[in-house]
Fold these 2 entries.
Entry 1:
Amino acid sequence: GKKGILEGVKMIVTAGATKEKMDPIRYFTNRSSGKMGFAVAEQAAKEGADVLLVTNSQLEVPKGVRTIHAESAEDMYQAVMANANEADVIIKSAAVADYRPKKIYDQKMKKQEGDLIVEFERTKDILMELGRTKEHQFLVGFAAETENIDHYAQKKLQNKNADMIVANDVSHEGAGFQGDTNIVTIYKKDGSKTELPLMSKQDVAHHLIKEIAEAMKEVR
Ligand code: PMT
């Protein structure tokens, strides 16, 4: 059939929330469903990319996409870093926990008198590490913000050494977590930005894939 615009491109996509355990039955997580990242994986595979999806989400895996199951931020870090060298493009649409409980209890924590104080420690920043160690990879981060979107997106581009940042205003109706639609702005290294109107996550993914294919032509 018709040749896709990402034919022969090796891609890693991360999607959905991570889960950070506190004991065998309790964990901390966030509202990410994985829909945005799964849409990216699906559209990329349709365009001929060889896609590895790293996720904890139970959504149906798109046709032709390989997956690695990763529950925690640490699991995701390990899975992504182990495969990063071979990848041409890495898209970090997962909502990775920034903190995890400092201690994981082997047994169910029992109720005690009074308040419970849980200590958290920072997880590894996967995007930051990818940016620090990157050689040839085209690196795409997402940004979920509720204010100062332009500012934070530009900062993420620089601080994390990413080639592209996809920012969604998660305070907007129809954008961000869980729904089937999103409103995003795509920021590129050259300072340009593309604001997309409200559309399905599949359409957002399609636009994003086109932008990536274009941008990769320019750097190569
Ligand atoms: O899954 P859905 O329900 O469809 O929702 C989609 C989404 C809103 C989750 C998605 O569009 C999105 O914005 N994903 C990124 C959410 C996020 O965690 O943003 P952040 O601003 O906290 O992180 C910025 C970037 O750093 C992200 O690319 C994130 O994957 C990455 N990161 C963050 C923390 C960490 N420890 N490691 C990382 O790699």
Entry 2:
Amino acid sequence: MPVRPFSKRLLSASQPPLQIRGGSIIGVIQNVNRKVCELPKKVRTCEISIDPTAQKEHNTARMKTPVTVTVTGAAGNIAYSLLFRIAAGNMLGEDQPIVLKLLEITPCLDKLHGVVMELDDCAFPLVQEIVATDDPAVAFKDANWCMLVGSVPRKAGMERKDLLSINGKVFIGQGKAIAENAAPDCKVFVVGNPCNTNCLIALHNATGLPKQNFFAMTMLDELRAKSQLAAKAGVPVSAVTNMTIWGNHSSTQYPDFTNAKINGKPVTEVISDTDWLKGEFIKTVQQRGAAIIQARGASSAASAANAALMTVKNLVTPTAQGDWFSVASYSDGTRYGLPEGIICSQPTRTNADGSHTIVEGLPIDDFSRGKIDASCKELLEERAEVLG
Ligand code: NAX
């Protein structure tokens, strides 16, 4: 049955999935609301009926207002894993319609077009519209979630401050475009490195948006830490909870084993090898990105996409009783001795009303204090380089 390419302008949540029966052809065309179908000439009669199950699912999706998710660096490696899972409903829920807006630099638009073709070919029921563009004003228009994945990678011979300066300009422009075009209550989530400081730059330029709506990714580090602890203790990774990454997403980050738990018990009660916890464990987590590049010949992409997805999922879902997750957010200088005005990874909970709270009152011993301070010092240095 020939199906001609559909126009995204025709996408509508008002039409339920249909079953088409006619002549010698009986078939179910899934997601017919997303396609314009031409029936073969030999079909003389065409009975259109509504599949009750599909109708029910469709009605649930239809009740929700579509959420606009903007992803930058959309033709890059992380996005190639991320976009398909967002579109499948793995991030915001399987009943949440989505408008996808994809931003790339002009030379990568052809590649992005290929990604959009593949998204089309998945015929994701939740995807209401896909916009691919090199114009930040178009990409961030009405965005509810701004996922800033794209950034210029560090090249051989490039100093850290050169990288900060190049990406600084990108995040100045994107911060301004978000403030001017996105939804006033949009959330901004930065993955592109150096993600904490890129996030700070975006925040400073997104005039009018609340500081608490800005986040940078340290979930990949949290998941790496949980995985290492689980392997050492010989337990499933789901047994590891309360894992905090403190500070910067860099080799100074501190995976806090002192407050983490395994099957509800302090990690230090389950893993007695303190030397390993203070040494190899921390180093493995801090250096994991480099180890993956060495082994794979390319930076982590699928696991980074998974962590990005998990972060947003954690930020929109009430956190399990007694647990928390790691994300870098604006420090107001009132907790744990963290300096004011940096984007610092901290233990975070999402409340039932969707707001976020930094977990208070965790004990910080001298060992942890030194590690946290070292990472914050690096964040202050980065801030000085970009904001003066
Ligand atoms: P790729 O180089 O594969 O893709 C980046 C994409 O961003 C490219 O397609 C590029 O054209 C695009 N881009 C560059 N400037 C842009 C701009 N101004 N507007 C829109 N798009 C732009 O990198 P990928 O592997 O996808 O990684 C993306 C970023 O994630 C990198 O900065 C990387 O360092 C960072 N990571 C952050 C992690 C974290 O935990 N926070 C972990 C994974 C990853 O290393």
